[in-house]
Design goal:
With 128 residues, the chain is mainly alpha-helical. Helices cover 50% and strands 11% of the residues. It is built from five helices and four strands. The strands form two sheets. The protein has a two-stranded antiparallel sheet with strand order 1-2. A two-stranded antiparallel ribbon has the order 3-4. The longest helix has 19 residues. It is elongated, with a radius of gyration of 23 Å. The two termini are 25 Å apart. It holds the Pfam family Rrf2. InterPro entries: TR_Rrf2-type_CS (IPR030489), Tscrpt_reg_Rrf2 (IPR000944), WH-like_DNA-bd_sf (IPR036388), WH_DNA-bd_sf (IPR036390).
Length: 128
């Protein structure tokens, strides 16, 4: 059993409901159920609904000397006698990682997990 407070869980479920991921089922045996097929709900969608859609990495203190050491100036973007377009090398790496993570989370749905659990349960049942 998860040790999550009822108020925190209520806030999460409210966000999921507002974004159309779950809907409330009224009645004594009510609760929540998926509002769409499990194969249409990606992990990215769930995480962004709960956590928000902010960037994972942001360069801070871009005017520091250390930051200047981590930037590269693209020659084709340099204006004669003007500033070049500086791009933080670390930010490029982190942005690439974030893109890969987003794609991975998009490729995995609630159904992906349900299928894996069903397969795991089937394999354990066959071993007995």
């Amino acid at each position: 059993m998860l040790s999550v407070s009822e108020s925190y869980l209520s806030k999460i479920m409210s966000k999921l409901r507002q974004d159309g991921i779950v809907h409330a089922v009224p009645g004594v045996k009510g609760g929540y159920e998926l509002a769409r097929p499990a194969g249409e709900i990606t992990f990215l969608e769930v995480i962004q609904t709960i956590e928000g859609r902010q960037r994972m990495f942001d360069c801070s203190n871009v005017n520091s000397q250390q930051h200047q050491l981590l930037t590269e100036v693209k020659d084709d973007e340099r204006i004669p006698n003007g500033p070049g377009k500086d791009e933080c090398v670390v930010k490029k790496v982190m942005d690439g990682a974030e893109q890969h993570l987003h794609q991975y989370l998009k490729d995995h749905t609630i159904q992906t997990v349900l299928d894996a659990v069903a397969k795991n349960c089937h394999n354990k049942a066959n071993k007995k």
